[in-house]
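Researcher: Sequence of Cytochrome c553 follows. Predict its structure.
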Amino acid sequence: MLWPLLFWPRLPKVRRMSSRFRFCNFSIRPALLALTVCSIGQMAWAQADEARAQRIAGGSCFLCHGAKGESTSEVFPRLAGQNAQYIAKQLEAFKSGQRKSSAMADISARLTSDEMLALGKYYEKMEPPREPPKDPALAAVGQYIYHQGNRFSGVPSCASCHGANGEGAANLPRLASQFSGYLFTQLKQFNTRQRTDENQVMHVVVEKMTELEMAAVAEYLSGK
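Model: Prediction complete. Tokens:
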């Protein structure tokens, strides 16, 4: 009997997957798998780098720069929050002798480039201490010079390179929250050529600054 089949509910037609879609589907799966494996691998490498950096920092760096990069004295820079690439760049400079320090030359000589960058990333994640300037009046003068420069002597604005908030950039140092004494010493060393930079930009800047202006800018940045 055929008549029951005439009233049997029709099932919706199942469209066959196009060959193009099947190809894309099978092509995407390996790519997604590779991306997942790559991401896991990168996370593992990052964790290994951080663990290695922590061991190095705990063995050599913390005595001068503090357990959290806060530093133990104005003689030594605060590393907390400093740009990772800048830290690595300075370690390379100590290692090559471009930047002078017998203690840092000895430490950096034992580090690979990967370890230097790992240390930079380790300290970059830390929160720098926040303290108000000790001399607000001097800091106010420094604020003007930092942002406006001194058009009479030709001192340019520091913010044009180091940022409006002293945050710096990849290859330029973060200056905010740094010790005023340390910053003042570095400015004087640039002025006397005891310290240099690749393009000698800092020489051109600081040779036009008075020591009072250097101290004022350093005081302002210490409270940022």
